[in-house]
Amino acid sequence: RVLFRSDTFLGDAIKGLLQVTLLPETQEVYDIIEEVRNELQDLLRETETNYNKEKSAYETSKTNYENTIRDLNSKILNTENQLSKAKSNRDELKSGIASSEAAVNKAQDEFEEETNRRNEASAAHQQKIQDLTEAIEACEEALRLMGEVREKDLPARNAVFLQTSEQKIKGHIQKINSKLQKMTLKSTITPFLTALVELTQEGVNWELIDKIINLIKQLKESLREEIRVANEQDEADAKFSEQLLESLQNTIDTETDSINK
Questions:
Q1: What angle (nearest 5°) sits at the alpha carbon of residue 185, between those of residues 180 and 188?
Q2: Could you count the other beta carbons within 10 Å of the beta carbon of residue 228?
Q3: Pairwise CA distance, residues 104 & 116, whole Å
Q4: Would 172 disulfide with which of 91, 97, 142, 206, CB 3.0-4.6 Å?
Q5: Which comes out higher in pLDDT, residue 6 or 119?
Q6: What is the pTM for the complete model shown?
Q7: Could you tell me how far CA 241 lies from the centroid of its own chain?
Q8: Using the 8-state DSSP alphabet, how is residue 3 labeled?
Q9: What is the DSSP string of 10-63?
């Protein structure tokens, strides 16, 4: 019997030394050696296989680890960029809120100022219309008295009646003057008023009656025109104020909504 196969390194070596036929006892020893050798080879192959598996698992784990590290670094970088952007957005938001709050406060102040201005302008207008109306009424009363003087027995030149009426006429002219002195009037009114006051201060006599009546009539018409113009100006101012307040309120609402978002 041949102890070892010729295709193995150990078998070739021994084959070169032992080209003899062995005794049974010797063959038994070599059989045991062959069995041990085979077991060692199987163990070596198993160990090599396990090693390759472990190495492959290690390489896979290493690759996964490196990939995980790269992913984590990428996420960290992205997170840092997002955080930086968030901080920038936060600063912009805080700046925007501060700007909106300032705009709201400014608009509210202007709204209050305009409301007060319009209320004062409206009250002043109403007072002006009341004074102008009372001045016109005084003109009408003075004209009525002048008419009575004029229709009285002119040939008789009733001195007593004229003297009594004169005081009443002067009182009405003084009332007109008092009312109109409180306000700024058109330049066309002032000459009538000045002439009328100066004329009546000299005394109401028969020769001045027609002149005084004409001055009072012209003054009354001028005052009516003053009322018309004043009403137009007040309506225009009221419309302007309404539009301004609406614009300011829109600003307040818009900026407030921006803050609350």
A1: 110
A2: 10
A3: 18
A4: 142
A5: 119
A6: 0.58
A7: 20
A8: S
A9: HHHHHHHH--SPPPHHHHHHHHHHHHHHHHHHHHHHHHHHHHHHHHHHHHHHHH
Residues contacting 169, CB < 8 A, separation 6+: 142, 145, 146, 149, 200, 204, 212
Q: Which one, of 82, 65, 181, 69, lies nearest residue 132 by Cα?
A: 181
How many whole angstroms separate alpha carbon 197 and alpha carbon 183? 17
**Of 39, 211, 233, 213, nearest in space to 143 by CA:** 213
* pLDDT digit string, tens, across residues 137-181: 888 887 887 777 666 545 445 555 556 666 777 777 777 777 777
Compute the mean pLDDT over every residue in the chain, rounded to the nearest whole number: 79
Q: Residue 180 CB: number of other CB atoms within 10 A?
A: 23
Note the Cα 195 to chain centre separation in Å: 57
pLDDT above 90: percentage of residues in the chain? 20
Given a cut of 60, is residue 19 above it in pLDDT? no
Please state, in angstroms and rounded to a whole number, the distance separating the CA atoms of residues 217 and 196: 11
| pLDDT tens digits along 61-105 | 888 888 989 899 999 899 888 888 888 888 888 888 888 889 899
- Of 205, 202, 200, 210, nearest to 172 by C-alpha is 200
Paired tokens of 62: 């290493």
